[in-house]
Amino acid sequence: MYPMIKIEGVRHAYKTAKGPLPVLNRLEVSVNEGGFVAVVGPSGCGKSTLTRLIAGLMKPDEGRVMVHGEVVTGPRSTVGMAFQNPVMLEWRTILENIMLPLEIVSTKMTKAEQKERANYLLDLVGLTGFGDKRPSELSGGMRQRASLCRALVHKPEVLILDEPFGALDAFTREDLWQTMHKVKEEEPFTGVLITHDLRESIFLADQVVVLSQRPAMTQYVLDVPNTGPRDLDHLYTPEAAEMLNILRHQIEVAQGRAAA
Amino acid sequence: MAYVPDLKPSTPGGSFVKALTSRAVLAPIAAMVVFLVFWELLVWVNGWPNYVMASPSDLPPAYAKYWGLFITMGWQTLWRTVVGLVLAVIVGLFLGMIMGFSRLMRDALYPLLVGFNAIPKATVVPIVALMFVGEHNFNTILMAFMISFFPIAVSVSIGLSTLEPEYRDILRALGAKQATIFWKIALPKTLPEFFGALKVAVTLAFIGTNLMEIVSPHGRGLGALFDSGKTNSDYPLMFAVLIALALLGIVLYYIVVALEKIFAGWAERAPG
Known about the structure:
Chain B: It is a multi-pass membrane protein. The structure holds two protein chains of two kinds. Chain A has a single domain, classed as P-loop containing nucleotide triphosphate hydrolases (Rossmann fold, 3-Layer(aba) Sandwich). Chain A is 33% helix and 26% strand. Chain A has eight helices and ten strands. In chain A, the strands form two sheets. In chain A, strands 6-7-8-3-9-10 form a six-stranded mixed β-sheet, with helices on both faces. The longest helix of chain A is centred in the last third of the chain and has 18 residues, at 238-255. In chain B, 78% of the residues lie in helices and 0% in strands. In chain B, helix 3 crosses helix 6 and helix 5 crosses helix 6 (136-161). Chain B is mainly alpha-helical. Chain B contains ten helices and no strands. Chain A binds chain B through residues 55-57, 74-77, 79, 81, 83, 85, 87, 89-91, 100-101, 103-105, 134, 136, 150, 154, and chain B through 164, 166-167, 169-176, 180, 184-185, 188-189, 191, 264, 266-267, 269.
């Protein structure tokens, strides 16, 4: 399979007043085309830095970040992003918010086609009829759904999700997990998901990468056997319990609380 | 967010008459009547002659006697205040943008601006009046500007510098230029702060205009009218000028509120 995202020997350090603060150390991650990789690791281990590198918002000090076979040198319009904080422009309607990327990325779509596409995505995430609402009228979960539409509207090859469900309550989160599977079926993308939630990682991704403590390097890679859409019952099978156990152990190792 | 009376009729399809008898209109009028009655009583009970304090009933004769002056002087005060305010908006926005986007400029300019703002503007009046002798229009506009640009500069810079990084990143990740991010996100996002500051600046600009009008010799405008009342011991005239100034202030303030509703109405939460 063709690797859509390839991160090779990436090192990165932030410049701080107290000298360089290394966050990534010889990081290796590879995501196949159409694959969905979840990245987990201790707090502050550099997971968000990883997303910014893939998005081209930063350049690594050392090593290479490749997307679609090209070295990433800056932002590219084939990437979609959704953050934990689903920021919306409050002065625009939800539909206008979702269409925002189309004002930046050159597209051959007419205004009517853009609207049609935005409305189609709203239907897909279960927000039918909310296009004319203002962001302030939406709940946190609904805003996150809208934010997902905005990340997908320009048909990106790569979707980067930086803890998008982290601030939601458990029921809403599980709802959104299922929405994600539906979206992935209808709108294929290569995905990178940053998360703190191990259940989320094995439910959504087909590969889970565990990062070590800062400066982060790839510590463990877990393949999730049952890929594709699945329902929540899958989280309560013995296989799932075993995967969760392995991941939990790996996180403890990363935190230095257990021996490898 | 400023208090904005809801002038929409309470029932759909209600008439204009209904709107004028709504609570939003009647309540402030009632408050004003109570205030005037209280003022009149205060003067009457204490038996104050009008050189101690004029009463509301002294005002209509004063307006009747000098109405021509009130119109011309009021216009002088109004246009100079508005020009000063427009300058304050332009310069304030510019300074706010510089300080909002550049950490270096913020660190460099803040102490200077704070120091400038701390100087009592009444002490600047004679200096300005001496520097530009005879340029009364220019001096007055300059004072109105100097006293009112500060809140605009500060609030715009804070609005821009506290923009959450995600707002920038959603466009930056797509390769948008800085200018695009400014026009599409940073500027509209800062409008509520800008209008909040403009409401403060409106009343400040009036103070600036009047300081110059009162202090500088041979001034014009309502401030000069106030000064002539003082010179001629016409106390009802002085009070009448104060009320006229308050009225002008209210008018300008609500013009800003109307503009805010048009351009930043989205920031207002539904009541409740």
